Fold this protein.
Amino acid sequence: MADKNTNIRVRFAPSPTGALHIGGGHTALFNWLWARHTGGKFILRIEDTDLVRSTKEYEQTIMDGMTWLGLDWDEGPDKGGDYGPYRQSERLDLYRKYAQQLTDEGRAYRDGEAVLFKVEPGQDISFDDMVYGRVEVMSDALKERDSDKLKDIVIIKSDGMPTYNYAVVIDDHLMAISHVIRGEDHISNTPKQILLYRALGWDVPTFAHLPMILGKDKKKLSKRHGATSVYEYRDMGYMPDSVFNFLALLGWSAGDDEIFTREKAARLFELSRVTRKPAVLDPDKMNFINQEHLKRLDPMTRLAMIRPFWEEMGLPVDKHDDTWLAEALTLMAGRGRTAKEMAEFSDYFVSFDPVKARWDGSDIAEDRKPGLRDFFAALFAVTDWTPEALEAQARKWTEERGVRMKDYAMPLRFVLTGMKVSPGIFEVAVHLGRDEVKRRLEHYGLI
Ligand code: GLU
């Protein structure tokens, strides 16, 4: 880890006009990684100058989404700090003050209620981006649409509110931001912002733009691609640890190991290793990462993840002992890519009801039942109720009769789980216990 660098200050500056979407979460996360890697500060600034679309509810949702992802900030509207206020709507006097200064100096002018910054030709406004490298731009490129005329930059709109390009400069300077880390869609705004920094006589921060995030079809991410807000992932049963891991891999890698913790990512993160190649959001990858994190959880934490989903399914979770439930999930050995899936795949441990609802037993032909009853009776003759003993008995019984084990184990699997796939069925039987297995067999008339 780099030496603690208290001069490094980065910010996430969302507009509270919607939930925390994947792109916003990604930007917040990379800022957090850089701050935590360097020992700097991570600031949350709310860009709520669009008074119509901004709401306090969205502001809260964004903060909740960040908290869920584990992205804690050091300064922000809720936390305070030495550089506040942290909501743009509370900083209007500052924007007016510097607009007045620019106007007094002849760098800006009034047009009705609005204030515009005058763009002079022949200025080199190129910059070195930590991700994209050198971006060459001359002010002559800042033209009116379909014209050769230079386009001045509106800094205060006629409603008295500052524009994004202007407020962002005032705030990033006054908040002593050292690195501006944001989506690549802002590369085109950067030269305009550089003009404003210079006119105000301020140092320009270091810029690092993050690659665009695309859907699997290589098109810009949209609703069509499935979950686009961080909360949708939460509601589908993805773990915050894995959504964090997944987002961190969009445009960066931690070396060989794709599965990592926040701490490890923060330790290894380097802005200079972020790629400019658009990152593709692959739901299969998300599932893989989540599954790996689920597998690595300690049993009680895993139970805490799964419990709400069982409860939502109406299952009597409280009837069981926590350790017993946690062991049942350990038996699942990585089955289920999300907490929701794992809860669904293991519902039969919690209750027999979903089994009955899934499978009515009618696909077992009457003439097979006597043979099955003999088989199950043989299993119940085993005194040592362990997976090994049950399996040995089943093997012996089927071999002696020259029948296939599968033809007997499969019905048992349906009786106990109502499903075609499950962990080893003798392990399931042992975990459910003799009495419960008997009860389920009796229900289907197989004992
Ligand atoms: N409010 C802007 C956005 O959400 C911030 C961009 C920036 O980081 O400069 O896109």
